């Protein structure tokens, strides 16, 4: 397998000839569109290997019930777990079904491919945003927490889920210990009934890190309670923030190194973004809003705009700029080079695996690279 960066004058035919590779395979693996124009700086995956090897790490990917059935079918062979997003709950601990559609068909599809369907639990309020008052109400009440856990157990049994993933964000600092106790209760109940429990963790770099995302989560306690954790190592670049890499590797490394001081490596999954952002410029805080785009879409924009794709050496992430209708844009996304850097980190620290937010858009080269790195070489 090779990662090739396109140079001026290259074509898929000349690249195929240089590597002795099948041109149709290059086009297919990299989702190139006819007439197969390339952007200077674009990273292409060139691969010839046995694709039937067994998985060597745990791989999960969040998905909403409205995911394209075709995209889910393409992705499931690469996943060991499918966290379905998401169930909610009331202040009194009543479980609420997914608001984005029926999850039954996804559970059936996961089982067809030997992938574990996972119930994702989130504290979304009526406005569709994370609501820490819901968390506060449930984790501080034995009655409400018992009701929620019992409701979870009943739905998981009825629908044949195989685990639960707790994705609570913006937990109040005052609820830190109560939340840890709640996770212990969930995990112990699930283990007693043959299910496993995971938890999504905001990307902390120290135990006393300030901020609403971080203060309510005790890495050590939660790592001990849950069967495994997902480090949400993305969103440095985000919708309302300034243009930058979504998951800069130097920042991701800091989170991993801190997590390892609190949680065993074989319990840690590295979070990986499956998206990028397109920011209009100039950036004005509180006004500018980036558009979320897929990684394949980002490259197609670069091709259409005649933009050269650059690669930032510090964040190990691709980016480019362009001007459309008089408006300047800056785009950051993921390609096989930035993904390779993250896979290297998983191997370097012997982590349990990785988890994707999210798998709604199909990025074939990512899965082929992952397959090669951990299904063949490890």
Key terms for this structure?
globular, 378 residues, alpha/beta
Task: Describe the fold and architecture.
By secondary structure, the chain is an alpha/beta fold. The protein is built from 12 helices and 16 strands. The chain has helices at residues 12-19, 23-29, 69-75, 104-112, 132-139, 142-159, 176-192, 219-225, 249-259, 295-305, 336-349, 364-376; strands at 2-5, 43-46, 58-61, 81-89, 95-96, 116-121, 163-166, 196-201, 228-231, 268-273, 276-281, 291-293, 310-312, 317-324, 327-332, 353-357. The strands form 3 sheets. It has a 9-stranded mixed β-sheet with strand order 3-16-10-9-8-7-6-4-5. A 5-stranded antiparallel β-sheet has the order 12-11-15-14-13. Strands 1-2 form a two-stranded antiparallel ribbon. Strand 4 and strand 5 form a beta hairpin. The longest helix has 18 residues, at 142-159. It is globular. The model has no long low-confidence stretch (mean pLDDT 96).
Q: Strands, helices and their partners?
A:
Layout: E1 2-5, H1 12-19, H2 23-29, E2 43-46, E3 58-61, H3 69-75, E4 81-89, E5 95-96, H4 104-112, E6 116-121, H5 132-139, H6 142-159, E7 163-166, H7 176-192, E8 196-201, H8 219-225, E9 228-231, H9 249-259, E10 268-273, E11 276-281, E12 291-293, H10 295-305, E13 310-312, E14 317-324, E15 327-332, H11 336-349, E16 353-357, H12 364-376
Parallel strand pairs: 3-16, 4-6, 6-7, 7-8, 8-9, 9-10, 10-16
Antiparallel strand pairs: 1-2, 4-5, 11-12, 11-15, 13-14, 14-15
């Amino acid at each position: 397998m090779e990662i090739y960066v396109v140079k001026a004058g290259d074509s898929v035919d000349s690249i195929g000839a240089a590597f002795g590779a099948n041109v149709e395979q290059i086009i297919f693996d990299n989702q190139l569109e006819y007439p197969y124009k390339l952007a200077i700086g674009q990273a292409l995956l060139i691969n010839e290997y046995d694709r039937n090897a067994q998985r060597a790490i745990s791989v999960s990917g969040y998905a909403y019930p409205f995911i394209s059935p075709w995209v889910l079918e393409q992705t499931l062979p690469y996943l060991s777990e499918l966290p379905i997003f998401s169930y909610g709950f009331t202040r009194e601990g009543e479980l609420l079904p997914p608001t984005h559609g029926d999850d039954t068909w996804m559970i059936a599809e996961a089982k067809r491919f030997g992938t574990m369907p996972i119930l994702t639990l989130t504290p979304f309020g009526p406005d569709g945003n994370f609501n820490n008052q819901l968390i506060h109400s449930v984790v501080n009440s034995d009655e409400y927490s018992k009701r929620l856990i019992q409701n979870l157990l009943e739905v998981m049994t009825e629908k044949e889920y195989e685990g639960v993933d707790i994705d609570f964000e913006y937990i109040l600092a005052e609820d830190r210990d109560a939340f840890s106790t709640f996770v212990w209760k969930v995990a112990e109940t699930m283990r007693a009934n043959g299910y496993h429990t995971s938890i999504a963790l905001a990307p902390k770099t120290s135990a006393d890190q300030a901020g609403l995302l971080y203060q309510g989560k005790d890495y050590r306690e939660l790592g001990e309670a849950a069967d495994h954790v997902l480090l949400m190592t993305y969103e440095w670049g985000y919708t309302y923030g300034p243009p930058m890499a979504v998951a800069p590797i130097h920042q991701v490394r800091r989170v991993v190194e801190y997590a390892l001081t609190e949680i065993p490596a074989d319990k840690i999954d590295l979070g990986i973004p499956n998206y990028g952002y397109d920011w209009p410029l100039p950036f004005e805080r509180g006004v500018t809003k980036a558009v979320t785009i897929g990684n394949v879409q980002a490259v197609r924009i670069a091709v259409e705009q005649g933009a050269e794709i650059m690669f930032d050496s510090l964040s190990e992430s691709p980016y480019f700029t362009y001007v459309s209708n008089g408006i300047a844009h800056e785009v950051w996304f993921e390609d096989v080079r930035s993904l390779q850097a993250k896979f290297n980190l998983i191997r370097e620290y012997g982590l349990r695996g990785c988890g994707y937010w999210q798998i709604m858009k199909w990025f074939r080269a990512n899965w082929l690279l992952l397959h090669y790195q951990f299904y063949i070489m490890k």
